Amino acid sequence: MKLSRTLFATLREVPSDTEVASHALMARAGFIHKLAAGIYVYGPMMWRVLRRVEGIVRDEHDRVDCQEMLMPAVQPKELWAESGRWDRYVNDGILFHFHDRRGSEVCLGPTHEEVVTDFVRSRVQSWRQLPVILYQIQTKFRDEIRPRFGLMRGREFIMKDAYSFDVSEEAMKQSYATMREVYRAVFTRCGLRFTPVQADSGAIGGCGSEEFMVDADSGEDAIAVCRVSGYAANIEKAVSIIPPPPAAPASVLMHKEATPGARSCEDLLRMFPDLPLARMLKTVIYQASWGDRQQTVAVMCRGDRQLNEVKILNHLGALKLELADEAVVRAATGAAVGFAGPIGLKDGVRLLADASVEGVQGFLCGGNETDTHWLDAWFGRDLAQPETADFGLVQAGDATVDGGGAIEITRGIEVGHIFQLGTKYSEAMQATYNDEQQKKQPIWMGCYGIGVSRIAAAAIEQNHDENGMIWPLPIAPYAVLLVHMKPGDEAQDALAQELHDALEAQGVDVLWDDRPKVSPGAKFKDADLVGVPLRIVVGRDAAQRGVEWSERARPGEKEALSAEAARDRAVELCRAAGRRA
Ligand code: ATP
Ligand code: MG
Question: Which ligand 1 atom lies nearest to the CA of residue 159?
């Protein structure tokens, strides 16, 4: 492809809303064009990358007999009412939904469990028809609270979603294991460095899930990993051994302490320098909602630990959990924000405690009275041990529960998520099959998502430098950038044309920078920005059939080669990268 024939245009200024490198570079290079928050035009270069990613995804799914199909983006509310998810998604605000001219309510699909279950229940009758795995690559719509980072978190984005249907739990686990291997293969072939982690199942539900995280400091997800035991989990899900509570002090009667203005553990540490943080118990007030009702929930936690709201939400089975505002805190505690405690909460407030408070005695806690705390409180003596479970956030240095070493916290970009759904959807929507005894049984399901457009962004988060993008060869928009230094020079024109044709003939796609009025310096600058992995420069030595070879990932390493040698090397590297035009 001649660059002069493309609508190639770079931006001189980085758009002001870019916070991460992939977004800034893709926007600058003209790969994407913002239409609205989280909604982008994928330009021709971007589309080539996305098609490459899709090709790898298809290839790996088809290899294990998954079948591609395409489901509608517009979905009727009735289906979502059957699964019981309409209210949750509407409540979350994530669902784009509207009325059609007949007054029926519809949504733009954020995911397709309902639609695929409806499709399968209309077709599957007998155990003989299972297992089956269906997938599609399609645009998804989610009205995210914070669309950001370009393609990383869009409101309209491309996802591959697959669904498995099996006769039993064991068979479902088999399909899940197959898909896990498919995922490893997909991300490996895309040239990404990634970590599979245990994950929370969130709104999709089900009984177990794993996420695939591209290792990147700019990632939105925090991951707990242990290099010794190999443990890896999303921090939302991660568990650890909590460091033991401090020794109990001598028993003293519980008493009130005036603590004017002390709303945080830091403030209290200044007032009680001898009291370890682990003997200060904080009480955080939340508002939980279930769609039809709300409740104020107070959760206790040791001063040296943090709460994990995902664990609290799951324990409550609530749809939403938010930090309470000042009015709710006042209503629950009778005090200003910062003085909540477990003793004397108003009726109707549900009290929970994180496992970290277990065994802590003689502690400080909020007094439910402005500017007041209780000191030397004992569980069992001054208050009953509240309903206690693991609501904690793991911390760096914690010991892992599987033995071995300490937890480290790293960051990642979630590019894939696989779920064992069990019979959640099939029971709610009556998707059944007849077993060998002609008895009706619910179908066992799994679902498996890959963020196709997010993969492109993640690849650039992992592979860029100050000059631009560095595409991994398997998903690059073009394999080779042919830099034609001086169009109009007869020898250069002839050799560039020849190389272009020879490479294309062998299935290597070439972007040919033939722009006549652009200086070599500007061409190299653009080349670095666009990040095509292999570069062949046709210049001074063209008459002797000499070219310069370099790779975007190794700036500064240039090699003089014959045109034939450069061609052969490009063909060989593309073959090794599994790249076919
Ligand atoms: P996240 O926690 O990042 O919001 P999710 O748990 O909502 O992701 P899934 O519902 O499992 O994601 O969707 C499957 C895949 O789709 C994700 O692993 C991710 O790669 C991608 N994805 C999800 N939301 C977005 C989005 N807003 N923009 C781009 N890709 C997304
Ligand atoms: Mg999400």
Answer: 16
